[in-house]
Design a protein that fits this description.
mainly beta, Porin, two-stranded antiparallel sheet, 16 strands, 6% helix, 57% strand
Length: 281
């Protein structure tokens, strides 16, 4: 197996959580958060003395596709998020239950943090960081077990929706990502719910995709996601969310040294169904 073959089998296009925490990583956490996102910029930012809130979410996804790259088949995705004042942080995991693409995906555990600061009216700036962990990654075969991705996002309101341009750079993979996300919520009072629409488009350039490869393996590509979710309150603290999204990786190519660029077979277009339960306290 060549180094580029290994990349095709194990790569993950690295830049998310499209906003500051992978939005439950692009396909599992976007469900049911539209209203909260829309209110995030419109409302005054909380004071530093705000109370601590905790949200625990358990999701089941039909497959895990991250930034246009298929990572695994059906998976459980538990997450815990803590918020206080301007700060939000949490942990998210992907636990495949079938069709594990590589040991790199079994499991994946990510830690994230973001600090949201008001900049001008209806616009806030949010520096953050995500640490990706793959405890079973085969380092001798060229995989990384940990990467670190600082990011910077702007959150703004326009025509009743929220728009978030974002810049991220993975310090290990030497990967820069540019992303634009949009969110819009439509109330469904008759059903006691809403429709939360999400759209994301991004592009990345990666300079060191395989551990200890000489010369370095490089990759580039684009991706997009469009989704809709409907949350249903079970109680004051709990809700159940059903979501559907389509995501696709486009023009994703890999090259090493003077070799010709080759398409990455993990860059696909897939529909993803998400079922999630969230308990907040």
């Amino acid at each position: 197996m060549t180094v580029i073959d290994f990349f095709h089998k194990n790569t993950r296009a690295t830049i998310h959580q499209m906003t500051y925490h992978r939005f439950f990583l692009l396909v599992s956490g976007w469900a049911g958060v539209g209203s909260a996102l829309l209110a995030e910029v419109a409302a005054p930012l909380p004071s530093a003395a705000s109370a601590i809130t905790v949200a625990a979410t358990s999701s089941l996804v039909s497959q895990n596709v991250f930034r246009g790259q298929r990572v695994s088949g059906a998976a459980l995705q538990p997450a815990v998020e803590i918020s206080s004042g301007h700060f939000t942080g949490g942990v998210w995991a992907n636990l495949p239950v079938r069709d594990i693409g590589s040991r790199r995906a079994d499991p994946e555990v990510d830690l994230y943090a973001v600090y949201n600061l008001k900049w001008i009216d209806a616009v806030s700036i949010a520096p953050g960081v995500t640490s990706y962990h793959y405890p079973r990654a085969l380092t001798d075969a060229g995989a990384y077990r940990t990467t670190l991705e600082p990011n910077l996002a702007l959150n703004g309101m326009l025509a009743g929706g929220k728009f978030t341009p974002k810049l991220a750079y993975d310090l290990v993979l030497k990967s820069v990502t540019y992303e634009l996300a949009g969110y819009y919520a439509v109330a469904l009072p008759a059903l006691g719910s809403e429709l939360d629409f999400t759209f994301i488009a991004g592009t990345y350039r990666q300079a060191d995709g395989v551990n200890r490869a000489v010369p370095a393996v490089k990759a580039r590509g684009d991706y997009w996601l469009a989704g809709v979710a409907a949350p249903f309150a079970i109680s004051r603290e709990a809700k159940f969310t059903v979501g559907l999204a389509f995501t696709e990786g486009r023009q994703v190519v890999v090259d090493q040294g003077n070799s010709a660029r080759t398409p990455d077979p993990l860059a696909v277009g897939r529909g993803v169904v998400t079922l999630s339960y969230t308990w907040s306290f």
